[in-house]
Write a structure and sequence with these properties.
The chain has helices spanning about 5-15, 20-35, 40, 60-65, 140-145; strands spanning about 45-50, 70-80, 85-90, 95, 105, 110, 120, 125, 135, 150-155, 175-180. The longest helix has 17 residues, at about 20-35. By secondary structure, the protein is of the alpha/beta class.
């Protein structure tokens, strides 16, 4: 089995090379699948990453969460402790550049405790259909999800679904992986 570092480089290059029109089409399909999930419909509080670079686009999902009257909860990274805190936003205008250049909630947003979150939408470089995910290597999501009791879903472009993603004891398996071609 290949090591995680080389897989990260490979799948980042694969994801970065996806044609913009193909990416936009897959984003639209993935968006529709997310909002049609029974777990989405049941959830009151949904934690979603803010897409960065070539990640599956999530701002439309965040806007839909807000317009559906649900709580949109966004992560804020604490780079000293390598942990994430979660904050409710009412508008995308409450986001500003934060750690790693990723948009995060601004200072006036209200923190939401993990136990109040029903659904977490997780980023990654690649996923397999068993729910394993290859993240960016910081461990933020694995630490956050270690004791999370709700439902977890990863979003992936078709090109970033692997047969097998290496996982160790600290890697948290997701409940569902959504891509344009699969649920």
């Amino acid at each position: 089995m290949r090591d995680k570092k080389s897989l990260r480089a490979e799948y980042k290059a694969v994801r970065d090379s996806i044609d913009a029109d193909i990416r936009k089409n897959q984003d639209a399909i993935i968006f529709q699948k997310v909002i049609e999930l029974k777990e989405y419909k049941r959830a009151n509080t949904i934690f979603v990453y803010v897409s960065f670079g070539s990640e599956v686009e999530t701002k439309r999902i965040i806007e839909r969460i807000i317009s559906d009257g649900k709580y949109a909860v966004i992560p804020k990274c604490d780079t000293k402790s390598h942990t994430m805190h979660t904050f409710k936003i009412d508008s995308l205008s409450q986001l500003k550049k934060g750690a790693y250049g990723i948009e995060e909630p601004c200072e006036d947003c209200v923190e939401v405790l993990k136990e109040h979150i029903d659904l977490v939408v997780v980023p990654g470089l690649c996923f397999d259909l068993k729910g394993n995910r290859l993240g960016y290597g910081g461990g933020y999501y694995d630490r956050f999800l270690a004791d999370f009791k709700g439902f977890t879903v990863g979003l992936s472009y078709n090109e970033c679904i692997a047969d097998i993603v290496p996982a160790d004891e600290y890697d948290c398996r997701l409940d569902l992986i959504i891509s344009a071609d699969g649920v």
